[in-house]
What does this fold into?
Amino acid sequence: MTEGSQQKRVVVVGAGWAGNGATYHLAKQGYDVTLLEAGANPGGLVAGWKTAGGQSVEAGVHGFWYPYRNIFSLINELGINPFTTWTRSSQYSPFGLEVESPIFQDLPRLPTPIGTFLYTQFKRLPLIDRISALPLLYALIDFDNSDEAWRRYDFVTARELFKDFGVSARLYRDSFEPMLLVGLFAPGEQCSAAATLGMLYFFILAHQSDFDVVWCRGTVGEKIFRPWVEQIEKAGAKKLTNRRVTDIIVDNNRATGVVCGDEVFDADAVIFAVGITGMKKIVSNSHSLQSRQEFINLSNLGAIDVLATRLWFDRKIEIPRPSNACFGFDATTGWTFFNLNELHDEYKNEPGTVIEADFYHANQFLNLSDEEIVQRVQRDLATCIPQFRQAKVIDSSVIRLANAVSHFAPGSYRYMLPASTSYDNVFMSGDWIVSRHGSWSQEKAYVTGLEAANLVVDYLKQGKPAEILPVEADEPHIQVARGVNKIVRDLGKSILPDFWLP
It folds into this structure.
C-alpha cells in the first residue's frame, strides 16, 4: 500500500464459518475488515456458552468429516489441536442396534463403493435390501454437481428418487431416510433429490474413507472459534458483536455502507455470511435489498427446527460408541446422541455420564416444557441402552433452535443465491449458497467464505486470493463412468426430445 493511501474497507455480516473465513483472509491481505455478529459470541450455531452452573453447552454437536480438507488446513495454520481421533459410530432404532460403522481408513482400501458396502456392519438389514440400492448408483454418477444436474434433480423429492430407482421400502426406511433426517434434517418427502445426491456422494460414491469423522474435544466455540478470532483480531480485523444489520446504503449499484440501527459502517465491499433465516430478516428490513428480485425470492427458502439437549446422569453408563444416530422413534424426526465423557476433555473425569442428544426437524418438540423434553430424551436413550432407565438426571440443558438449519426443499435451488449478486460489490457466502466446489455442511460454509473473499480481492484489486483445496478427484472408474454418461446424455439431447420440464 502506497504512503497516504487509505485501506479498502470490507464489512462482513455474520461470524460463523463463512464470515470468519472471509474476514481472516481479507485481514491478512491488508483490508480494513469489520466483522458484524448479531449474537453475543462469534460462531453462529457453533458458538458455545456456559450455563448458570458453569457447565459448557452449545447448539448441537458437529462432526468433521474426512473430506473437510480446507477446515483441517485452517486448523493446522492456527496451530491448534481441537479434535478427537477418528471415531466409530452406531445407529439405533426402537428395536435396538441396527448398524455399526468401522474406521474405514484403517481397512484395506477397495474401489468405491465396495468398501462402504462390505465394511459397514448391518445387524438386521437383509442383504437383498442392501443390494436394491445398486440402481441408485446411476443417479449418483449422473449427478456431477453441475448447474444442469441440480436443475435436473432438484424438483424431485428424495422419496421419489429412491422409489424410482427401485430402492426397497426397508432399505429406505432403515438406512436412507435416517441419513436424510440427520444429514439434511428432514424426511425424504421434504428433501430435494439434488441435495440428497450431493450428500450421498460423500457417503457412498466418493472414497471409502470419506465416512470417517472426528469431533471437537469441547465446544467448537471454545476449541476453534476462540483461538481463530484471536488470530483474526491480530491480523487487524475488528469484531463487533450484538450488531444486527438492518440495511445497506447503495450508490450507483454499489454498497457504500452497512446499517445497524443508528450505526453505519462504511464499505468498499460487503459480504453476507448468515443463514437463511438471518438473511430473510435482513431483507425484510432492507429497502435496498427488497428492490432486487433475487433477494425478494429468498422468502421461498426455509429452515428447520433443532432441539439440542445436554443431560448429566448420576452414574457411569457403558456406551459402546461415542457417536450414535437414531431413527424410527418419531416418523419425521431424526436424532443423535453423543457420549461427552469420551469426546470432550472437560468430562473425561466426570463421575457420572454426560450425554448430548440433538433432534432435527424437531418442530413438534419445541413447545414442550424442559421437564417433558428431558423425560422424553431419557426414555429414548433407555430404549437404545437400557442402563439409562435406572439412572437419574442430576442436571440438564435444553436449547430450542427455531428455523436454525438450512432446508434444501424440492425446488429450492432456483432461489438459492450465487456468491456474486446484482450489486457490483455485494457478495454472499454460507452453506446455502450455490458453489461448484462440491463440499458440504461446515466445510461448504467455510469454502464459500473463502470464495467470497476471493471475489472481493478480484473486485478491489488488492492482495492474493485464498487457496481453496479442491474436493479429492473421483476414482478412475467413477471418472470413466461419468465421462461415458455425459457422452450418452449429450448424444440423447441431439436426437431426442427434452422430456424434462424446466
Q: What stands out?
A: The chain has a mean pLDDT of 93. The chain has three domains: 9-46+221-301+414-460, 106-209, 302-407.
